[in-house]
Amino acid sequence: MVFQRRVFSFLAGKTALITGSTSGIGEGVARSLAAKGANIIFNGFGDEAEINKLVSSVQKEYKVDTTFIGGDLSKQEDVKALHQQAISKFPGGIDILVNNAGFQHVSPIESFPLDVYSKMIGVMLIAPFHLTQLCLGNMKQKGWGRIVNIASAHGHVASPNKTAYVSIKHGIIGLTKAVAIESAGSGVTCTAVCPGYVETPLFVKQAEAIAQKQGVSYEEGKKHILRVHPSGTAVQVDEISDCVAFLCSPAANQMTGTSLIVDGGWLAN
């Protein structure tokens, strides 16, 4: 049997849209896919100068085409405009859709603001549904596509005071399964990545807030958050981004409708 070496740039010529990619996990995913040759459509919020710097740096470092398209993903008209601008920039359409954008709000359900809950659903469940709806037909027509939903360990387990986040992440895993079945055999796969606590700038702020509130060190604040990880350590951004790249590789051609759990052993408890 003759084995052929996988080409490093296995995504050359492909175009990837990553929502919420101006920082954190999304930025990591953008860089990882660019390193494999994919053109990148950035999306998210942030300082305009910093976003321009990011888009330019990825283009220069990885020799791929990049662009930034903003918009409020809680608004359906902005989601549609995002897709339209993306295919205008890249007429071949979107080959890889990574639904990553999201935010957290912690509150007991009795006092959870309904408007915040509705916005979270809009950004984290309706927008992925809508973007999948807009992108899937073209992927099927070309006979290849990857839809990767950044879910969470909270898509499988619950924590108190996170009713919105938990219910939405359970929902995104359901969406992943349904889309996978509908697209099975077409060359398009739909998967979810379910991180535990990832050491992002948001994680750092949470650990600092806990440390200040409890009068302990930052490291103790981290330990408080990571008590659910048997590993005792946070997931790193590049560990998530490389998982996404793997799901876009030929090695994952038969992986669809499944969750890739990266949680330091949390769900094993």
How would you sum up this structure in a few lines?
The protein has 269 residues and is α/β, with parallel strands linked by helices. It is built from 8 helices and 7 strands, in the order βαβαβαβαβαβαααβ.
Give a written overview of the molecule:
The chain has 269 residues and is of the alpha/beta class. The protein has 8 helices and 7 strands, in the order E-H-E-H-E-H-E-H-E-H-E-H-H-H-E. It has helices at 24-35, 48-62, 76-89, 114-142, 163-183, 201-214, 218-225, 237-247, and strands at 15-18, 39-42, 66-68, 96-99, 145-150, 188-195, 259-262. The longest helix has 29 residues, at 114-142. The protein is globular, with a radius of gyration of 18 Å.
Shape type: globular
Please report the number of helical segments. Answer: 8
Q: What is the mean predicted local confidence, pLDDT? A: 95
Strand arrangement, largest sheet?
A: 3-2-1-4-5-6-7
Uncertain residue segments: 1-7
- Helix and strand succession? EHEHEHEHEHEHHHE
- Percent helix, as a range, is 40-55%
Class derived from helix and strand content: alpha/beta
Strand fraction band? 5-15%
* End-to-end CA span: 42 Å
Characterize the main sheet: 7 strands, parallel
Q: Using only CA atoms, what is the Rg?
A: 18 Å
Count the strands? 7
